Fold this sequence. Notes:
The structure is a single chain. This protein starts with a helix and ends with a helix. The chain is mostly helical. It is built from twelve helices and no strands. Helix content is 82%, strand content 0%. The chain has one domain.
Amino acid sequence: MKKDYLLLHLSVFIAGFTGVLGRLISLDSAVLVWYRMAFAGLLMLVFLLITKQFKKSDFHDKLQMGGVGMLLCLHWVFFYASIKSSNVSIGVVCFSLVGFFTALFEPIINKHRFSAREFLFSLLTLLGIYLIFQFDARYRLGICLGIVSSALYALFAIANQRVGKNYEAKNMLFWEMTGGLIGLSVLLPIYQIFIPIGKLIPGELDLAYLSFMVIICTIGLCLLQIIVLQKIAAFTVNLTYNLEPVYSIILSMFIFKEYKELNVAFYCGIALIILSVALQTWSEIRKMKTVTAI
C-alpha cells in the first residue's frame, strides 16, 4: 500500500512540474499546446496500436471525445499564457479557482442540488485571488488569464466525467488529444491576428522540454493516474491533488527564485486559498464518515 501512495504523490509532483515547463519553453502558449497535443496524440496512437488496445469509434463518439479535448486544449492555452504573462506561482494559484467554478457549473450542467457549503468554501479562494489582484498590479493580466483557465478546466472536468463513463480511458485520451489538436489548428490563424505567435519551430532545448512534458507529464501522468485509481479510492486521489499548486510553487521558487517577485499580498492571498482547500478537505472527510456510518 505504501508503494501505491508513493506513486500517487509522484503523480502529483509530476503534475506540479507542468507549470514550470510552461515557463521554461520559449514558444507561445498556443504553439506549445499544439505541439503537446500533436506529440501526445501520436505517441498514444502508437502505444494503442502496439498493445492492440485501439478501438474504433463512430463519428458521434469521436465528436464527443474531441469536444472534451478542445476544452482541455483551451484550458492549457490560457494556463500557459497566464504563466508567461506573470509567473508560475500566479498561474497555479489561479488554478485553485477550479473548485469555485465546479461548485458553480456542476449543479447547472448535471442538474443536481446546489451545494452552498462548497460554494462558500470556494469563495475564500476567490477572495485570496482578489487580494493578490488588488494589491499587485504587475500580475493582473496573468490573473485574468488564469481565472479563464480555471473556468475552462472546471468545464473540462465535468464534461470528461460525463463522457468518460461511456469510453475506455486510453482511447478517450487519444481522441481528446486529436480533437484538441484539430480545433487548435483551425483557431491558430485567427489567434495569430490578435497575438503575434513568434517562432513556430522549437529549438533543441524547447524540444527536450516538450518531450519531457509529453512523455512524462501527459502520457506518463495519465497512465500513472489510471494505475493509482485502481489501488486507491478516487476520493483520496482528488484530495491529494490539492497539493499540486504547492508542489508547483516550491519548484518555481527553487528554479526561478520567484520568492523575490512575491509580496505580502501574495502570501496573504495564498493563505486564504490554503484555508479554503483545508476546509473543503475537512468537509469531504466528514461527509465520507457520515455515509460510512449510515
